[in-house]
Structure formats: C-alpha cells, structure tokens
Amino acid sequence: MREIYLDNAATTPCDPKVLKEIEPYWSKNHGNPSSFNDSGREAKKAIDQSRQKIARILGAKDQEIIFTSSATEANNLAVFGIVKSSKKTNPQPQIITTQIEHQSVLEPIKNLENWGFKTHYLSVNKEGLVDLDELKKALNPETVLVSIIYANNEIGSIQPIKKLAKIVKEFKKGSEYPYFHIDAAQAASHLDIKVNNLGVDLMTISSHKIYGPKGVAALYVRRGTKIEPIIYGGGQEFGLRSATEAVPLIVGFAKALEIVNSKKQMTNSTQEKLRTHFIKKLINLFPEIKINGPENPKDQVPHIINLTFSGIENEQLLLQLDKHGILASAGSACTSREIEPSHVLIAMGLSKEAARSSIRLSLGRQTTKADLDYVLKILPEVVKKIEDLYGSNIKEYYYN
Fold first, then answer.
1. Of 138, 195, 186, whose CA–CA distance to 159 is shortest?
2. 128 close to 151: Cβ distance less than 8 angstroms
3. What is the pLDDT of residues 278-304, one digit of tens each?
4. Are 122 and 131 in contact (CB under 8 A)?
5. Residue range 127-147: average pLDDT?
6. What is the full DSSP assignment across 120-140?
7. Quick one: CA torsion of 314, 318, 319, 323, rounded to 10 degrees?
8. Would you call the peptide bond into 178 cis, given omega within 30 degrees of 0 as the criterion?
9. CA distance 385 to 396
10. Is residue 160 packed enough to be buried (19+ CB in 10 Å), middle (13-18) or exposed (0-12)?
11. What angle do the packed helices 247-285 and 38-58 form, to 10 degrees?
12. Going from the N-terminus, what domains does the chain have, and what CATH number goes with each?
C-alpha cells in the first residue's frame, strides 16, 4: 500500500547523509568522552566538533551549547534551572508564558505553580498570535523568565520573537532578570535561529524535528545566564547536564542541522507552493472547511496545515486515512473520546467540538505534489464513509 507520511511536525525521517555520518560511532568508536584513552579522546573530539558546528550555525559560542536527551529535557532545564537560580535573590519569582506552549513547557510551570510560584499565561488571538501589549503589562520586578514558543507545533503560528525580545530587554534596563527563552524545536528547519538576531537568552532546538536522530537536543544558554542543573552527576556539559554524552546522536544532530540550514530557503519555497496548492484544492472539495492558524502565510511555518472538518471526529478520520496509507495526526495525542481536545485550538477560540474535529497534516522534505493530490483524492471518500456510518448521530456518539 502506498504510504504518505504527513506527520513531520511530530518527527522527521532521519536523513541518509546523517545516518552515514553517525555509523562510525556505532560500529568503530565506542569510547566514553570522559575517558583518558585514545578512544575516549576521539569521542570527545567528535563532540567538540559537533558543538562547534552547531554553535556556528546559531551564531553562538561553543560553551553556550548544552546537549540534552530531548527538547522536553531542554525546556525543563530552561524553566526549572532559571527558577532554581533566581530563588537565591527572589523568593517569589514569576514566569510569563503563553496558553499555546508545548506540554514540556506547560507541565514544568504547572508543577511550579503547585509550589506557590506565580505564572502569567499570555492569551492568543484567533490566529494563534500573542499581544505585545499584554506582555508589557504582565512584566513586573518579580518576573524571572519569559518562555514563548517560536513556531507552534500544532498550527504553525510564528511569534514575533524579535519584538518580544525587545520588550523584555527594555523592561530589564540593565538588570539581570527576566531571561527570555524560546522553544525553537519546530522552527529550526524553517526560520532564523541566529540567537543574536533574535535577542534570546535561551533557546531549545531538537534533532528529530530536523531529520536527525531521536534522543538528542540542545539548549542554548547565553554566557552569563544564571541557571542551575536539574540532573546531577559527573558534571558533563559544563556542569549543566550530567550523564555520558550520546556521541553518535550528537554527531548526527550536528550534521542534520548543517543540512537543514543549507536547504532552508529551498525547503520553504517548495513547501509554501505545496501548501497553497493543497489548501486551494481542499477548499474546492470542502467549502465549509476551517483552516486554523494565521491568515498571512508570513506568520506561519509552511509545513503545518491544521484543518477542522465540522462534525467529523478527528480520531475516526485519522483511522480511516491510515487505512489508505496516509499518516497524519490530531493536534494532540488522541486515544479515546475522553482525551481533552487541543489546548492550542481552545486558546484560539475554537469550541471543544471543533477542536475534536481538527487534524494536522505536516509536510516534510520528501513530500511531493503527487502525495498531496493522493490525499485530496482520498479525503472525500473517507469523510463520506464516516458520515454514512454515523449520519446525524455522529455528534451524539462522539461529543456527549
């Protein structure tokens, strides 16, 4: 059966050039980077070169790149690490974030709220964009961290990071806090990630979102930022992330970032054309369909398409698409009717019913026009099949 993989926002296939780069560190060099022998020194050299490669792409210093096991860990380190350090001088620190963050930012913050920490959640408009004035009003002397997702993983909205960074910087007026962290996991393959251009203090990037291996990511930490580790042990990663480094994964991560950075402009152009073609044809097939996200394509990464099929439960739609080899996803993991609808879509003003009727298609470098035309051919068939199966009872069956 033909397979059309349209879940690239969840994870991307590993680039063959990346796999080739990794292979020697699986099969030949087994050294521990902390060992004082030839094999260990060779492993340490590979990490140093990879760190340098990533730092150059980000416009950062080598020692500002902290390798972690995932973007989730990197985001946790940013949140907990800054708050832990700030407690020494600020007994009641405040965090500012948004209502549409990834769970790896929201859940650590919710955990801190249980301990009495204060949080302000910036709202978003119907396009998933924050209000700059709300950030200005929310900042206060107790704010130690502002954490905002660069490109949203469900709807693709791009936040105006440079403008937000300027607001934070002007509020600081030379003082230490607040620090500004962005989750760029979904942005790294499409947007500017030069840290000085963006004006950020901390930034998360992830390997498996950019055609690299799973199990490795990085947190950029600007030199001088006061942050404490959340994992303790041998003091690797400049004392911020203890654990033996995953040499093959780090090597692959650096290679993947190098490749994706060189292809960024071409990838964006191709995916913008594919997305425009797909949506135009889709609207002809389903005039009532809702496209979730910014109206201006410049405010959205080109690889994410979020759609609401009114009255069609997303889990059933995904299962039917899967039978035809079309692999997509809901905005959030959906395994039963009891699962909560996407918090991102709810924050944008969609009803719970509409959120449960929404799916995400995310394009990859391997996606072709023929792939999307196949989806356009199958979609009417599966929608009609679901409507025929459940008819007027579909709302009562799924939403009551």
1. 186
2. no
3. 999 999 999 999 999 999 999 999 999
4. yes
5. 97
6. EEE-B-TTS-B-HHHHHHH--
7. 150
8. yes
9. 17
10. middle
11. 40
12. 4-10+264-399 (3.90.1150.10), 16-259 (3.40.640.10)
Which residue type is seen at 32?
Answer: N
Evaluate whether 333 touches 391 at the Cβ level (below 8 Å).
Answer: no
DSSP secondary structure of 297-339: GGGB-TTEEEEE-TT--HHHHHHHHHHTTEE-EESS---STTS
Average of per-residue pLDDT across 220-248: 97
Q: Please give the model's pTM, rounded to 2 decimal places.
A: 0.95
Amino acid occupying residue 75: N
Bridge partners of 330, per DSSP, are 359
Instruction: Decide: residue 293, CB within 10 A, 0-12 exposed, 13-18 middle, 19+ buried.
Output: buried
SS3 state of residue 239: coil
Catalytic residue list contains 14: no
- Tell me phi and psi for residue 360, to 5 degrees: -120, 130
Q: In the structure encoding, which two tokens stand for residue 313, read together?
A: 């439960």
Work out the burial of residue 87: count CB atoms within 10 Å of its CB; fewer than 13 is exposed, 13-18 middle, 19 or more buried.
middle
CA dihedral sign of residues 88, 94, 96, 99? positive
Residue written as token pair 């199966």: 389
Pick the catalytic residue: 149, 216, 334, 344?
334
CA 121/CA 284 separation, integer angstroms: 38
